[in-house]
Structure formats: C-alpha cells, structure tokens
Amino acid sequence: MSKIIHLSPDYDCEPLWDDESGDYLETSSLPISAQLKARIAQWQNAFNAILNRNNPRQSAFPSPQHEQDFHQEGTAIAQQLQAELGPSVQICYN
Questions:
Q1: What burial letters (b/e) apply to 5-16, b meaning 16+ CB within 10 Å?
Q2: Quick check: 15 and 21 in contact, CB under 8 A?
Q3: Burial per residue of 18-51, b for 16 or more beta-carbon CB atoms within 10 angstroms, e otherwise
Q4: Distance (Å, rounded) from C-alpha 40 to C-alpha 74?
Q5: Are 73 and 43 in contact (CB under 8 A)?
Q6: pLDDT tens sequence across 41-91
Q7: b/e per residue, 60-71, with b = 16+ CB within 10 A?
Q8: Residue 91, burial from CB neighbour count under 10 angstroms (0-12, 13-18, 19+)
Q9: Reported pTM
Q10: Radius of gyration of the chain from Cα atoms?
C-alpha cells in the first residue's frame, strides 16, 4: 500500500499532512526539490493572505478568478509532488 499525503491549505499551518497519522508534514522533511518547497510555501502564503483575522468567516479570495488560479496552482503542485515523490506515494489534493 502506498503512503497517502494530502495537499490541503489551512490557515497558518503546513498544507501537507499524512493520511495515516493525521500529522502535518514539514516540506523540509520531504525529499523534494528546493524549487517545489518554495512553490508550496508561496502557495500557502497566498492562502494565508486571504484570512480575515477579525472575522475568519469573511475570509475570501478577492475574485473568482483569483480563487480559480489558486486551485489551478494547487493542482499543478500536486502533480509536481507526485512526480518528485514517485509511485510509492499517493498525493491527494483537497
């Protein structure tokens, strides 16, 4: 059985977590390229930027296009993660 890693943004957290343990995974612990680590950090920072700390329920992307672009980048990151980690890992993008 392959290891399952979820890519799922969450405010002020790592966007990767282990399916079996439920623990967040630090990108630094994964055998992936520095370019991909930076890409994941930038993507997570973009998600953190939409957080309305005064009223989290009002957190939202500035436009539907921004939200679509964010999710397209998430899909591309998941694909790159899968390519770099290989077939022994299954990447799920939520």
A1: bbbebeeeebbb
A2: no
A3: eeeeeeebebeebebeeebeebbeebbebbeebe
A4: 9
A5: yes
A6: 999 999 999 999 999 999 999 999 999 999 999 999 999 999 999 999 999
A7: ebeeeeeeeeee
A8: buried
A9: 0.93
A10: 14
